[in-house]
Design brief:
Layout (H helix, E strand, L loop, with lengths): L10 H57 L2 H13 L10 E8 L4 E4 L16 H12 L4 E4 L8 E10 L2 E11 L1 H52 L15 H62 L4 H29 L7 E3 H5 L1 H8 L6 E6 L6 E3 L1 H16 L5 E9 L2 E8 L27 H11 L3 E7 L3 E9 L7
Parallel strand pairs: 7-9
Antiparallel strand pairs: 1-2, 1-5, 3-4, 4-5, 6-8, 9-10, 10-12, 11-12
């Protein structure tokens, strides 16, 4: 539907069609007025001509009627109709007659159908009306059939007087067939000119509209590039005019230049932030690895000096093993956090429920109340990395709460998302460090690496999910996670 809707057409096409429509309408109106005016003027001229012919016959008619010279009367009509040199008739004469005061035919151009001396008999109602008007006329008049038709006519009616005595009437009827033909020819000519004007106007309208819209097209393309975030290929719109579009182009160029500069600054800031983050990670890795590494080197140096001392070997080997495993854990967590995994292997919800027993074993015999509420469909499959997220949050909660504390796990389906909550009634998180929770290597635990929550944040972020923290000192902490189910594909 949108393809055929004028709302989606380019502005250049709309302007071109508008100009074409205006030119066509104006040309048609002017042509119609010309044809109508020409028809009316020619119609009136033909009426005057018919009247002149009737008057020319009426001049000699009284004497002939008094002498009852029927032949002279007929001859005058015949000469007028034949268009001989010296006569006025050049258009087609439909009929001509001379009637006396009683309506009897004195002479007729067609005597066979209208015998002389008998009353004139109109052929139809319209002709009866014309006959009555002619007989009642005491001054020259013109009778017209009216309308735009080749069968119409103009009739000149002139009353005949002799010594102010009414003797009858002369009627000469001329055909409008030639006028109709001329009017049609004029209409065809006007139509041809109209088409020429429309074609010329369309061409000019297309050229003008494209020149007018060209800056707007460039502006539109620039705005679309802004919407896509593509500012590098921006070329300023040429400004060649000082009208509204020219001023708009100048303003647009300024805006685009400022946006390009802003985009460049944002990219520089983003790069700086990446470098800062990389520096923090590097410093954290160096710090976390260097601490156990220094102790390991001391142990190795001592064992090198006393290679046969079994007591030292039994003492330092566990320390070396513990330090190496700590370094391995730090590197492993760091790699997991940095790896951008978009496709995860999926597991069943029941695998998440198995974490309950694993966390219970982590309590180490402490009196901790673990409340487990899983309201999701047991057949639902979730990314396997979600298990690591839940485990890390539960492990942190168990480690932070005192003996007799409570940990609550809730998981449910909320429309197109999976909702997860992990709550504890521990000491809470101070507000001044809450913004640093998900930073790498930030920890408040004496032996923590500071990578657990960072890994959790990275995994949830890669799942296009959301993780939020609510905490109040002395009351407890709640982690809220919302993950779209669309990312949970079947294995």
């Amino acid at each position: 539907m949108s393809l055929f809707s004028s709302k989606t057409w380019p502005l250049a096409i709309k302007l071109s069609l508008t100009i074409t429509g205006v030119v066509a309408a104006v040309s048609f109106m002017i042509g119609t007025v010309m044809v109508v005016q020409n028809w009316k003027r020619s119609h009136e001229d033909l009426g005057e001509k018919a009247l002149l012919l009737s008057e020319s016959i009426a001049i000699t008619t009284p004497k002939a009627m008094l002498r009852k010279d029927i032949w002279s009367l007929y001859q005058s009509l015949k000469n007028m109709a034949s268009g001989r040199p010296g006569t006025r008739g050049s258009d087609e004469v439909l009929t001509a007659m001379i009637l006396d005061a009683d309506g009897r035919v004195q002479t007729h151009l067609h005597p066979a159908s209208n015998p002389m001396g008998l009353p004139f008999l109109p052929s139809n109602t319209i002709e009866q009306e014309f006959f009555q008007q002619a007989m009642n006329a005491r001054t020259p008049i013109v009778l017209s059939s009216g309308g735009f038709s080749k069968t119409g006519f103009q009739e000149g009616v002139v009353p005949i007087f002799s010594d102010q005595k009414y003797m009858g009437v002369v009627r000469v009827r001329l055909s409008v067939a030639q006028l109709y033909k001329k009017a049609i020819d004029t209409a065809v000519t006007v139509l041809a000119l109209t088409i020429c004007f429309v074609v010329f106007g369309s061409a000019m309208g297309t050229i003008v509209s494209r020149r007018m819209v060209k800056p707007l097209t460039a502006i539109t393309q620039g705005l679309e590039a802004v919407g896509r975030g593509e500012m590098t290929d921006f070329a300023p719109v040429p400004v060649k005019r000082g009208d509204e579009i020219g001023r708009l182009s100048v303003t647009f160029n300024l805006i685009m230049a400022e946006l390009a500069e802003k985009k460049m600054l944002e990219e520089e800031i983003a790069m700086s932030e990446k470098l800062v983050a990389l520096g923090r990670i590097t410093a954290g890795v160096a710090h976390e690895v260097n601490n156990p590494l220094a102790g390991l080197l001391n142990c190795v140096d001592t064992l090198r000096k006393h290679p046969n001392d079994n007591q030292l070997i039994d003492r330092y080997l566990p320390v070396i093993d513990q330090g190496l495993h700590r370094i391995k854990e730090i590197v492993h967590n760091l790699l997991v956090g940095l790896k951008n995994e978009e496709n995860y292997e999926t597991i069943r919800i029941e695998n998440i429920d198995k974490l309950r027993d694993l966390i219970a074993a982590e309590t180490g015999g402490m009196d901790i109340d673990l409340i487990w509420k899983n309201d999701t469909d047991k057949d639902l499959r979730v990314p396997g990395k979600l298990e690591q997220v839940i485990y890390n949050l539960l492990k942190n909660a168990v480690e932070i709460i005192p003996d007799g504390g409570r940990v609550i796990f809730r998981m449910s389906r909320n429309g197109t998302h999976l909702s997860i909550e992990v709550s504890d009634n521990g000491p809470g998180i101070p507000s001044q460090i809450r913004n640093q929770l998900f930073d790498p290597f930030f920890t408040t635990k004496p032996n923590g690496t500071g990578l657990g929550l960072w890994v959790v944040y990275r995994i949830v972020h890669n799942m296009q999910g959301i993780i939020e923290v609510e905490s109040e000192e002395g009351i407890g902490t709640t982690f809220h996670i919302l993950v779209p189910i669309s990312t949970m594909k079947d294995a």
